[in-house]
Amino acid sequence: MKKKKFNYNQAIEEINGLLTKIENSEPDVDELSDMVNHALQLINQCKQKLRETEEKLNADFDNPGNDTIADS
């Protein structure tokens, strides 16, 4: 099965949706735990994406003749 490509903006929207659900409802402890764990997974993926982007940009600025930006 093909792994779905990570989308930063969709992850942020999903995190915000989870926060809204938590704030506007009274989830039981198990549901709350699941929502928090899922939000933490999304946050970690977002942080990883930001780190990878920073590394790629730094490499591109260090090597201006490199065409890696076009590959993204």
Strand runs, count: 0
Low-confidence stretches: none
| Order of H and E elements | HHH
Shape: elongated
Strand content: under 5%
Oligomer: single chain
> Mind summarizing the main beta sheet?
none
Number of helices: 3
Number of folding domains? 1
N- and C-termini, Cα separation: 23 Å
Estimated structural class: mainly alpha
Q: Taking Cα atoms only, what radius of gyration do you get, to the nearest Å?
A: 17 Å
Which percent bin holds the helix content? over 70%
Overall mean pLDDT stands at 89
Sequence-ordered SSE layout with sheet pairings:
Elements (H helix, E strand, L loop, with lengths): L7 H17 L4 H34 L5 H4 L1
Helix pairs in contact: 1-2
Can you describe this structure?
The chain is an all-alpha fold and 72 residues long. It has helices spanning 8-24, 29-62, 68-71. Helix content is 76%, strand content 0%. Helix 1 runs antiparallel to helix 2 (29-62). It is elongated. The two termini are 23 Å apart.
